[in-house]
Amino acid sequence: MPERKEVKIGILAVQGDFGAHAAMLEQLGAKTAEVRTPADLEDCDGLILPGGESTTQLKFLQEEGLADKIVKFAKRGGAIFGTCAGAILLAKDVKHPQQDSLNLMDMTVVRNAYGRQIASDVVSGPTTLKNEPLEMVFIRGPVIERAGPGVKVLAKYAGKPALVQRENIMAATFHPELTDDTTVHEYFLRLAGTGAKQPANGVKSSS
Fold this sequence. Notes:
Blueprint: E1 8-12, H1 18-27, E2 31-35, E3 46-49, H2 54-63, H3 66-75, E4 79-83, H4 85-90, E5 91-95, E6 105-110, E7 121-125, E8 134-138, E9 143-147, E10 152-157, E11 160-166, E12 169-172, H5 183-194
Parallel strand pairs: 1-2, 1-3, 3-4, 4-12, 5-6
Antiparallel strand pairs: 6-9, 7-8, 10-11, 11-12
């Protein structure tokens, strides 16, 4: 049998707990790399956009030339997973307040809709990834108000989508890297390792 290819995941290393993402991915056997320049993304199979402050992150991506690089990476079929602020960056529409984004997934998100950081919580919700409820850590998380055609809901909290996927793009409004449950990262590694059936094409639905 051919030797299994080692999956390499880049992690935007500007804000957020990118170290926790790296630790979980390495625990699962993946290679990781901190991404701060377009060149850092060159040989990656996937990219994680972690939590933080989405407007600050977007400004950094634009100034460093990473925004265009990430869009091209997605269109080539590279797997991308945005968590919390990263989910905001991926959304087509952002509200409260309105802001620009990478526009890679047809969904509408509302910033800080679960409350301030002192109201953040650890909860559980139904998921299609396993039979048991999925533990979710929310820290001033956004709410996915609308998921467009072709966007699959993989987990919910309080009746709203909390984990979604469209082809090679995933987004979570919570922080899977802050739990001991590796389910979500395992799923993303499979996506990055096998390659998506269809690369993202802007926010147009394939259905």
